[in-house]
Every structure is written in C-alpha cells, then in structure tokens.
Design a protein that fits this description.
With 225 residues, chain A is of the alpha/beta class. Chain A is built from six helices and ten strands; from the N terminus they run βαββαβαβαβαββββα. Chain A folds into two domains: 115 residues, 3-Layer(aba) Sandwich (Rossmann fold), CATH 3.40.50.720; 92 residues, Regulator of K+ conductance, C-terminal domain (Alpha-Beta Plaits). The C terminus of chain A is likely disordered. Chain B is α/β, with parallel strands linked by helices and 140 residues long. The longest helix of chain B is centred in the last third of the chain and has 17 residues. The chains are: A alpha/beta (225), B alpha/beta (140). Chains A and B meet through helix 3 and helix 4 of A and helix 4 of B.
C-alpha cells in the first residue's frame, strides 16, 4: 500500500518507520527538512519538503495514488485541513487525522475523517496505570463512549451461556479465548472455567461488568492467539 | 445585523470599524489579548472576545448561535476553515465568509456546503486576476 504521512514529528516518524518496515510505500511530508532526521538511516521511503495543506505539495507527493493519508502535524486545524484536501481533492479512501482537542474530533468524524485523540487515550492510560486498573485502555474506542474489557471465567460462571452476561445497549461479549483459540461467541456459547472473555462495555456499565465477573480477577491482555 | 468576526488583525479591525459605523452589531474574536485591547481603544467600543476562535466554546460565548454572518479572517487558512466548520454546525445557519491565502484552498471551503456555499475571498486570486486582465489588455 502507498501511505502519505503529513508531519514528521515523533508520531509521524514512528508511524513512517512502522509502515516502512512492513514493506509499504511511505511518503512523508514536512515543512522542516531537519525533521526527517527522525526517520533514521534505514527508512526506505520518500520525503517531501513542504506544507501539507497545499494541493500542489500533496500532488507532488503522490496523493493522487495514495491508499491512505495520515495527518499528524502538531496543529489540529492543519490536520483537519490536510485531511479535507486529501478527501475532497484527491479522493483518498483511508484518512486519519490526529486531533488533540476531543470535542473537535467528534465534529471531524461527522465529515468522514477518522480521528485519533492522543489526549484522551494518554490521560486514560495514565489513570489506569495510576489506579492499577484491571483493563486495557488501549482498546478503548471513541473518546470513552465504549471500552473493551477483559475478564477470566471463574468456576462459578463456567457452564453458563454468553447471553446470561450480556446486557443490551450496555455489555456485549465480543470474543472468547480458550487456551490458544479465539472465537466470536454466539448467544448460546457455553463458558468454560479459565476462558478469557473480551467485552465491549458502555461507560455506565463498567461496574456492572465487574460485578458480573466479580469472582474472577479481570485481566488486561489483548485478544490475540 | 449581528456579525461575528474571527480574527482581529488589520482586516478585522477595519471591517469592524466600518460595520459599527453602519450600526451593525459586531463581535470580534481575537486570540491575542494585546491586539484585542488595542482594537477596543481604537474603536472606543467593547466589541472583543479574547480566545481561540477555532474553539467551539469560545465561538458559543461570542454568540455564534445567533449570528447572521460569520466572517473568518484570521491569517491562516486552516484556522478559517475550522471557524467555518463550527459555524456551519449552528442551527441558525449563519452566512459564512472566509479569507484564504492559498487560492487552491478555495475549493475545500466551497465543498463544505453545496446548498449555502461559503463565500471565499482570496486576495492572492483577486490580484492575480487583475494582473491577468491587464496582461490580456496589453497584448490585444
């Protein structure tokens, strides 16, 4: 895939290196040529000096043929403008903009631009480390509207059906890991002791979720096998 | 009419003065307190709100919800774009006028609302057009 990244700060450079290492074609745009030093010596992609909110600069950078576009300059407004140019003038399908100000993130998503808000994610991560929270905030979506939580099935809950733990609009069991096997459960899937369940939980139902799996110590691992 | 101006630079100041003389109600949002104060002294009127005009809360405080017209005339295209995005979300549907430096950016502003298009002013483009007309007149 060909990815165009606007902004070669710490996040932009780190992302460029990740995508480059996965053998994607990466082009990084930044106004300041010195910023490209962050890419290191092993970066195989291209760099373009210029502002990301200029049609000509983006065209020269190959925006017309990009599969994905990422706006990570340190200005929220610049990121949204770059994203809109990518969307409206270059018709790029996958567009992500970093927005520090959470209320604005919502507004931009209404325009069809996916946003990532490091402010909310960072604050939550710090809170969870601080309070030794038993879940993994990295899995939180969308500005705290829903959170993904994990818990281990206790002996008491073994043999019960998934439906018994679900609460419409509040708690959905998304995945179950039994040993090395991960699956998406049906309503009548039976839980076994030691299974790890992963649930999507509304903020007001977090304590309800904890009560449901009270006897178990919730775990903070990702659902990968 | 109630006109909300975002950006209290030179364009904003002169515009405000002229509009006040025409008895319009004007509020100017300006980030720099010093600029805002200087403007109020010059105009001898309490017309400014100090704050970031790209912040929806600041615009709400400045009265965007009852504005007839919103003018985005900061020096940065991206800031003007965000002002327009916020204004376009208001239920009162204010008319939007935006200044852009890069004429290429006009299209982005114009694409925001097909039914009630943003009026985009690019002085770069205006000068360029006049120059082109001049060149054509000279060559014919």
């Amino acid at each position: 895939m060909r990815y165009l990244i606007v902004g070669c700060g710490r996040v932009g450079a780190a992302l460029a290196k990740l995508l480059d290492a996965d053998n994607h074609e990466v082009i990084v745009v930044d106004e300041n040529p010195a910023a490209f030093k962050r890419l290191g010596t092993r970066f195989k992609g291209h760099v373009v000096v210029g502002t990301g909110i200029d049609y000509d600069v983006l065209k020269r950078s190959g925006a017309g043929r990009a599969d994905g576009f990422i706006a990570v300059t340190n200005g929220d407004n610049r990121n949204v403008m770059a994203a809109l140019i990518a969307q409206r003038m270059f018709k790029i399908k996958r567009i992500v903009a970093r927005i520090y100000d959470p209320p604005r993130g919502q507004m931009y998503r209404e325009l069809g631009i996916d946003t990532v808000c490091p402010t909310t994610i960072g604050a939550k991560l710090i809170r969870d480390v601080l309070t030794e929270a038993p879940w993994d905030t990295l899995q939180s979506f969308d500005y705290g509207q829903v959170t993904s939580l994990s818990a281990t099935v206790s002996a008491e809950n073994a043999g019960k059906r998934v439906a018994e733990f679900e609460r419409p609009g509040r708690i959905r069991i998304a995945a179950i890991r039994s040993g090395k096997r991960v699956r998406v459960p049906a309503n009548d899937t039976l839980l076994s002791e030691g299974d790890e369940i992963n649930a999507i939980v509304a903020p007001e139902a977090i304590s309800e979720f904890a009560t449901l799996f009270e006897t178990a110590e919730p775990v903070a691992t990702r659902m990968t096998a | 009419m109630f006109i909300l101006i975002v950006g209290g630079g030179k364009v904003g100041s002169h515009l405000t003065r002229a509009l006040l003389q025409q008895d319009h109600e004007v509020v100017v949002v300006e980030k720099a307190e010093r600029k805002a104060k200087a403007m109020e002294q010059l105009l001898e009127r309490d017309v400014t709100v100090v704050g970031d005009g790209c912040d929806p809360e600041v615009l709400a405080q400045a009265g965007v919800a009852r504005a007839d017209v919103v003018v985005a005339d900061t020096g940065d295209d991206e800031d003007n774009l965000v002002v327009v995005l916020i204004a376009k979300k208001q239920a009162n549907k204010p008319r939007c006028i935006a200044r852009v430096n890069n004429p290429r950016n006009k299209m982005i502003f114009e694409s925001l609302d097909a039914e009630d298009p943003v009026t985009v002013i690019s002085s770069t483009e205006i000068i360029l057009n006049i120059l082109n007309e001049h060149v054509q007149a000279m060559s014919s």
